[in-house]
Amino acid sequence: DSGxxxxxxxxxxxxxxxxxxxxxxxxxxxSVYWYxxxxxxxxxxxxxxxxxxxxxKGNILERFSAQQFPDLHSExxxxxxxxxxxxxxxxxxxxxxxxxxxxxxxGPGTRLTVL
Amino acid sequence: LAxxxxxxxxxxxxxxxxxxxxxHNNIATNDYITWYQQFPSQGPRFIIQGYKTKVTxxxxxxxxxxxxxxxxxxxxxxxxxxxxxxxxxxGDGGSQGNLIFGKGTKLSVKP
Lengths: 115, 111
Hints:
heterodimer, A: about 120 residues, mainly beta, seven-stranded mixed sheet, four-stranded antiparallel sheet, 11 strands, about 50% strand, globular, B: about 110 residues, six-stranded mixed sheet
């Protein structure tokens, strides 16, 4: 158990809908990272927040957005969902602010299925 | 921008040493190389991280040559429980701090 929690574990929805994925970092960690993992694209970095501020950005679609709240939990919002958005979404956390060169602790993931 | 390349799969037998290499030709000067292990339906788990030369911890070693264009993860005396996918991770050196995972190497350890 990494100490990072993600809810829900599974989510099934329809195209065009909007969903919110939630992540709680390990106690004491200030950074939260979001990743998408699909069979064809592998692990793709989406975005990092550090203490409420956006810190690093990857290949995140405009339909996707994230935020980190004062209690340090984070939410990833996915809108206008398409079939291709079906994937595992992982959240990770770390102590420091760097995007690279820092140990990240991953949560168990949320499996999103878009029908 | 950085790009990583790893072998898609490797086979080994219990007790053997396994070396998995990742090439990252455009790694940024100040960037580290990190390796993760992932089992099915689980999140990746940190194995080891380094900047240059050699790093060793209780589970693995990481070898990074002077030009830092590649890195080799070494797993000594693998067991069946080491069967997993192994990923290298580097930053892309760009202004947005993008992180690049390799496509992963599926290691199969046989008895």
